[in-house]
Specification:
mainly alpha; 20 helices; Glutamyl-tRNA Synthetase, domain 3; 4 domains; three-stranded antiparallel beta sheet; single chain; Rossmann fold; Helicase, Ruva Protein, domain 3
C-alpha cells in the first residue's frame, strides 16, 4: 500500500450532535491526508436504521463547514467511490457475509430475542462466544437440512463471525505500536442483521476496501473491536490490503476519570458538541461551542492540543500551521483532560489576534440578536474597541457591551446601598444638573465636571465612582465609566442616574 495515494475517512452515524472527540478525529484525519497530498472522505454509517435521526446528517456537514474541514468526497460532495451512505450500499454486503459462512469463518444464528434473554438470566456472564455458541440455535448446532429449511421458511437470522477460541491477533498501531489480542476475549459479533443491513464490523471493512482507504483513524474505545476487523480483513481481502490503524487517545473528563460525555457538559456547564444540537423527537437542546461564542479557529486549535503537541511550548496554531507541524509521532497514547478554562483561553487568544473590523463582523449579529434591534456598525466597532480586552468569548460582548446600546434590565443596588447616604444623593442630583451644562460631550469633559463638583461638595470622587458605574452599567464591570457616559450620550446618562436614585430612595 506504500505506493498508494493516501486516503482517510471519517464515518459518523447520523444519530445526533457531533461530540468534540469526533471533530478531533476529523481534524487528525484531515491534517494527515493534506500533509500527504491525499484525500479526506466522509462516509455516513447509517446501517442502524433504528437510531437514525432526521437532520443529523445535515448537522454533521454544517459542523465541518464551520470548522473549515471540508471533505474531498462525501454524500454531499460526491466522488468516484460512492455511494457514500452505507444504507445505499446495502446489496454489496450480503455476498461477503455468505462468503464467510461458506468458508467456515461465520455462521447463521436463528436465536430469538427471548432465547437470548433467557440465556443472559441463566448465565450472568453470557456472551455469544466459544463458551456458549454450541448451546444456541445456529448453523453450528443445527444440521444443514434444518438450516436450509429455516432459511426457506423465512425464519429471521443474523450472520455472526466465528471467533477462534485460542488465537492471538496482532495489530501494529501507528500510535501505540504493536498491540496483541486474545480472540477468546471477543464474542461472535453480528456481521449481518436480520433486515439484511450490515453491522459496523462488516461494513467498515468492506467499505474501506472498496474506497481504497489507506489509513484508519478512530478513538481508542474501538480497540476491543480491532481483532474482529483484523480477522475480517484477513478472511476477505488479505492483510496486505488492510489500512494502517491509529487509535486516538480519549478526551477525558476534567478530573481525568473516564471519557468526557454529554452528561458531563450538562453537569459542569460547558458544551461538548461542536454546534448546538436540537433533538427533533424531544426538543431537547444541547449546547455547542459555536453558539457559546467560540471562533472556529480557536475550537480547532484547542482540539489539536488535546492529545498532541509539536514538542515546543507553542500553543496557538492556525490550521495552516497545524498542516505544517502535525505528525502522528507526537500524538499521545494517554487520554487528554478537557479543560474548559483552557478552551476559553484559546478563544481569547484568537480574538486578540483579530482586527477590530473582523471582530465587529462577528459580534454585531450577536448583539443585534440579544438586543432585538438593528445597530450601526460604526457604533458596534467603537463598542468592540472599548470592551474587547474584557471578553474571552464572542457572547461576552452581550454582557460587556450590551449596556452601551440598551438600559440595563437589572441594577446591582445591593453593592452601593450600604454606603449610600444623603451626601451622595445630593451629589448625584447636582451632577445631573451639571451634565445639562456640558457643551462638549466627551469623556474628559464629563470627568472634569464630575471631579469639579465633588470638590465643591466635599465628596471624595472615588466614593462616587462605584455608584456611577452601577448606574450606567448595572453592575461592577465595564470599561472606563466616563467613556461609557460619552458613548451612551447625555440623555441616557442622566436617565440612568435618576432611575437608580429613585430605586435607592
Amino acid at each position: 500500500m506504500n505506493d498508494q495515494k493516501v486516503r482517510v475517512r471519517f464515518a459518523p452515524s447520523p444519530t445526533g450532535g457531533l461530540h468534540l472527540g469526533g471533530v478531533r478525529t476529523v481534524l487528525f484525519n484531515y491534517l494527515f491526508a493534506k500533509q500527504q497530498g491525499g484525500d479526506f472522505i466522509l462516509r455516513i454509517e447509517d446501517t442502524d436504521q433504528s437510531r437514525f435521526v432526521p437532520g443529523a446528517e445535515e448537522y454533521i456537514f454544517d459542523t465541518l463547514t464551520w470548522c473549515g474541514l471540508v471533505p474531498d468526497e462525501s454524500p454531499l460532495h460526491g466522488g468516484p467511490y460512492g455511494p457514500y451512505r452505507q444504507s445505499e450500499r446495502k446489496p454489496m454486503y450480503l455476498p461477503y457475509a455468505q462468503q464467510l459462512v461458506e468458508a467456515g469463518q461465520a455462521y447463521y444464528a436463528f436465536d430469538t430475542p427471548e432465547q437470548l434473554d433467557a440465556m443472559r438470566k441463566e448465565h450472568p456472564n453470557f456472551q455469544y462466544n466459544h463458551q456458549f455458541r454450541m448451546m444456541l440455535s445456529n448453523s453450528l448446532t443445527l444440521s444443514k437440512e434444518e438450516v436450509a429449511q429455516k432459511i426457506a421458511n423465512g425464519d429471521p437470522y443474523v450472520i455472526r463471525i466465528l471467533m477462534p477460541a485460542n488465537e492471538t491477533v496482532v495489530l501494529h498501531d501507528l500510535i501505540r505500536g504493536e498491540v496483541s489480542f486474545d480472540t477468546a476475549q471477543s464474542d461472535d459479533k453480528v456481521l449481518l442483521k436480520a433486515d439484511g443491513m450490515p453491522t459496523y464490523h462488516l461494513a467498515v471493512v468492506v467499505d474501506d476496501f472498496h474506497m481504497k482507504i489507506t489509513h484508519a483513524f478512530r478513538g481508542e474505545e474501538w480497540l476491543p473491536s480491532a481483532p474482529i476487523h483484523v480477522l475480517l480483513w484477513k478472511y476477505l481481502f488479505g492483510l496486505d490490503a488492510m489500512p494502517k490503524w491509529a487509535h486516538l487517545p480519549l478526551i477525558l473528563k476534567p478530573d481525568g476519570h473516564g471519557k468526557l460525555s454529554k452528561r458531563d457538559g450538562e453537569r459542569l456547564g460547558f458544551p461538548v458538541f461542536a454546534k448546538e444540537w436540537k433533538d427533533p423527537a424531544t426538543g431537547e437542546l444541547t449546547a455547542g461551542f459555536k453558539e457559546r461564542g467560540f471562533l472556529p479557529e480557536a475550537f480547532i486549535n484547542m482540539l489539536a492540543m488535546l492529545g498532541w503537541n509539536d514538542g515546543t511550548d507553542q500553543e496557538v496554531f492556525s490550521l495552516e500551521e497545524l498542516l505544517q507541524r502535525f505528525h502522528l509521532e507526537r500524538v499521545h497514547k494517554g487520554g487528554a483532560r478537557f479543560d474548559f478554562e483552557k478552551a476559553t483561553w484559546f478563544n481569547q487568544e484568537w480574538m486578540k489576534r483579530m482586527s477590530t473590523s473582523a471582530l465587529t463582523e462577528k459580534v454585531q449579529p450577536i448583539l443585534e440578536t440579544a438586543l432585538q434591534t438593528k445597530l450601526a456598525t460604526e457604533q458596534v466597532t467603537q463598542a468592540v474597541e472599548m470592551t474587547r480586552e474584557r471578553c474571552a468569548l464572542l457572547n461576552d460582548f452581550t454582557t460587556q457591551a450590551g449596556f452601551l446600546f440598551a438600559t440595563p434590565a437589572l441594577y446591582d443596588i445591593a453593592s452601593i446601598q450600604p454606603k449610600w447616604d444623603e451626601k451622595k444623593q445630593n451629589f448625584f442630583k447636582a451632577f445631573v444638573v451639571e451634565l445639562s451644562k456640558v457643551s462638549e460631550w466627551n469623556a474628559p469633559t464629563i470627568e472634569a465636571k464630575f471631579k469639579e463638583l465633588a470638590a465643591e461638595q466635599g465628596v471624595k470622587p472615588g466614593d462616587c465612582m462605584l455608584p456611577l458605574r452601577v448606574m450606567l452599567v448595572g453592575g461592577k464591570f465595564g470599561p472606563g465609566v466616563f467613556d461609557i457616559a460619552a458613548f451612551i450620550g447625555a440623555a441616557a446618562t442622566k436617565e440612568r442616574i435618576e432611575q437608580v436614585m429613585a430605586l435607592l430612595g
